[in-house]
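Re: beginner question about structure tokens

> Can someone show what the tokenized structure looks like for a real chain? I only ever see the sequence side.

Sure, here's an example I had lying around. Input first:
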Amino acid sequence: MVVVPALIARPSDVDSLVNQLELHYLRNPDPNIGFAILSDFADAPQPEMPEDAALMAAMESGIVELNQKYGIQAFYLFHRRRLWNPSEGTWMGWERKRGKLHEFNRLLRGDRNTSHMIALGDAGFLATIRYVITLDADTLLPQEQAQQLIGALAHPLNRAVFDPESGKVVAGYTVLQPRTEIKPMSANQSLFTRIFAGDVEIDLYSRAVSDLYQDLFGAGNYVGKGIYAVDAFEQSLDGRVPENSLLSHDLFEGLHGRVGLVTDIVLYEDYPPHFLINSQRSHRWVRGDWQLLPWLLPWTAHGVPQPSFRQQTKIADADVVKGSASADGAHVERNDLTLIDRWKIFDNLRRSLLAPAYLFLLLAGWTILPGSPFVWTLLASLTPIFAVATATLTGMVRAADSETLVTWHSLVRPLRDSLLRWCLFLTFLPHDTLITFDAIGRTLIRLFVTRRNLLEWTTAANAVRLFGKNATAGAALTKMLPSILLGCVFALVVVVFNPTALLVATPYLALWLLASQIAHWISRPLLRTNGKGSEALTEDQQRAPRTLALRTWFFYEPCVGPEDNWLPPDHFQEAPRGVIAHRTSPTNVGLYLLATLAANDLGYIGVTNLSLRLRFALETLNRLGRYRGHFLNWIDTRTLAPLPPGYVSTVDSGNLAACLIVLKQGCMELPQHPVWDWMRWLGCWTCCHFCPTQPPTWWIIRTFILALRLCQQVRGQLQSHGPLLQLAIVQCCSPIWKIHDKRSWLRRKMSTNGRRC
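And the corresponding structure tokens:
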């Protein structure tokens, strides 16, 4: 079953979740896979809030509509009530996301003693579920990836094997972690996302990978999105999780359940659109990592085992089952994590301290360390640049190994992006340091002193929503003011202890003072609007797709004629000599018919040209032989004889049918179009710009088009005179338009052998 754990706070959350669930189904339709939402209400001061009923009704209605829309019972809803949490001081879903999955697993195995208040769907299907694919609300599950994940975990070599004495997984896996990539649309929201999306060097928390652990030790890291075997997963964690202690539960679950990394299966997720939103996410992750600090000690807290779960469950994915044990409550036991498991926890803590380490190395080099401040500055600044060199070499090797044409852009972009990440990493060192120290300080106080707010969490969508309302330069300055003040303190320390180092330190101090403005500048949306909600494109940008369409039409115009019975060729071979492949298929014919219609719509040919081309092509199709109504797949365009072996392709027939449907609708709209509409003039204008050398007649056409464009801009004032002016221009241009219609000189300019355009 594919599940999406989520918090519901407003109606837009409901719409987004239902839509996401439907998309998961459409990409992975399978009668043996269910799709469910595991939902909680947002934290509240009381168990029920006034808006809860409306949100719940909308959620139930959405699931019911999906089941009715597709005529199957593939969609489910499992919603939990709020419970009072004394350590958090609020009413909330028990144990947040970890609790959702744990209670859902118990529900699958028949345990009704959960906090679920609504379980909507086919109850009989639940007992048959062996595997659960868990995704975040912003995760995209590509086509057929669910089946691949299930097949990989169901493989006999991947089944979890438990030690009968310790109860730990000693072979196989309970969880498989796919590779995660950034959605292309998300990576182009701002300059910040273009630079950092996909970074695995400096932004270690967002793109940390576990390939090294998998290759050397046979187990990777779990990041909360993947597939797990229900029974084996619960067995590996039974009695090991103390309540109200785990914020970053995925790493902990992966350590006990063993995680297999499957890099050939990919999931896509969003990337924070703003630098400060990404900082808040890093703050949450650092808190979660440091809350695992007690698991580096010899003795750790354990939770309450659940013998009832094991007694009711047949462990289908485990070869050996641990014997039942019981306990009255949470207790302390010897830490049984292996050395490599403890290293994974320590490695996360180490990575969180990178920014403070670099910052204080710079400060120490400017003040107290012996030797030249320039050398220390160079050492601290160039240490992270090893990642730049690695990324550059990797990009060049991949480009060299690629079968496609290697461009200068593909070689330079990895180096450019890595250098920009390096520069921004140095720019935001004080801010990242304060974020890290704040997260570590809060965690240590809560962990060893107050024991409160250990589950404090803000979802990524809520963080984007809250900050998006105030993503201004002033807000960035307010958020980053402490780091700016820290930079001022560093400047004062350098002046007091070693004024001679100011020459080296000044560029860094200046960057730190301007950090808030830089953060706001790189986080601005890339999409520009003209104030009316539409994109404000330049004239060159508007002309580019029309020029591309014109070049496409110039393939069909000279190559489709009486010699080929007005049928399009399959392709044109450019090298070593220009040769036309005089054969065609139903798909090629359908695309040609639509290209002819599009050429008329864009103003490259007139209605007469369109009608003649369509008439000749359809008459030729009438003369072709068929098999049960289908055209044979390959036809010689000169003789109209089928090429052996003759066969029918239902795919090509479907493509032709779809093209004919579109062609019919386009032709039915033609009588309502004006004879000379604005697209005819734009088509002529595109031809003018497309010409490498322009004869004098084109300059005359361009002048008339400029005059008509001026009339279009002031058409409100010239509404009564516009048609007369347009008619006059048409009459003046009629002899010139013949040149535009024939374009014989343009063919000669674009041709290499008289046949190529």
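Each token stands for a local structural state, so reading them left to right follows the chain. The chain has 29 helices and 20 strands.
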